[in-house]
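Example (one chain per record):
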Amino acid sequence: MGKNSDNRKNKRYIVEGIRGNLLYTSDLEILNISIDGAAIETAKRLELNREYIFKIKYKNAFLDLKGRVVWAILISKERKDSKIMVPVYRAGIKFIGTLSEKANMLLDFIEENKIKTIENRPGGVRFKIASSRNIKIDVPHRYKVKKISLSGMLVETEYPLEKDSHHTIELFINNTPMNIVGRIANCIRCNVDKVADYEVGIEFIEISDNDREVLKGFLNALGDE
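Predicted structure:
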């Protein structure tokens, strides 16, 4: 690990064993919702006990809620447009940190969008809402790093990504979690198997000073090898 691969402005190094997650915003279906949690359906598999970020658009603001998966099952469901049975993941979400302003905003959203009461439970009343189009979830796509520099990296992932789209990226350097906003510079399918892998070039466009220093220290250590 650590060989410089080209002569770019910022040296890019070939690495092994460096992994992370790219957060991809996905649609979901809300089955019911309350101040303490929700039952949802999504085409993406959600991991039990993992925390996810839910984005709710309400009026002219966005509410980011953190939620943990407390149960999850795989079911089959008929697609409305084709009547073909497709796999769907159904999960129970417990919201974390829904206090003060977030709680009030979530309550207002539910009040304006609810269409009927589903059930009363000790944790609160569950409601069905009219539409889920203003609620999204950030689903992590795993990747492994092939090359990295101070300004970007080349990764391998199972998922194609749209060129020029922006994503929040989790990168783990020496067990230190880093959060970066990156732009997809290119995406190339690198095999023709049934399960395709993609090589994705990512440009770092937002990185904190602290994370930049961690990355810089890591790259300097590679240069000394």
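Caption: The first strand starts at residue 3 and ends at 4.
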